[in-house]
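Reply to dn_fold:

You asked what the input looked like. This is it:
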Amino acid sequence: VWMGLPITHILPVCVLGNMAPIIPLMFLLRNDKLKSLMSPILSRAEKKSASLGVGSIEKQWASLAAFVGIPLPGTGAWTGAMGAFLLGMPTAVALSSIFTGVCGAGCIMASITLAGKKGGIAALAALALITGAEFFGEKDEEK
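and this is what came back:
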């Protein structure tokens, strides 16, 4: 696919390359000095995230994996690591969830790549339809 290399060689390297900085980042976010330095930002983010309702650890795991696994700008391993930190997820659970999401996003992007130009256009059209329906569709207001 890329430079004549098969996807079976490229995908694992991409996943590992994406996960390599996440492990130190997860432990860095738990650093007390960093927490005190970023306390104004973190307290504001924690107040906003508190209204979301945390839920059980299984729901957190699935939600984080889905968030990381959606290959769109702003949804990835780095953002997922910050989200896991704000939710107070245990490090091992967060890492496994982020890893699952990264693998999912990699498979989605590999599928689109292997589908070629027509597959890319089809994925873009599907994304445009979903986005259009979300923004321009009728909203049911419950009273």
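The chain has seven helices and no strands.
Hope that clears it up.
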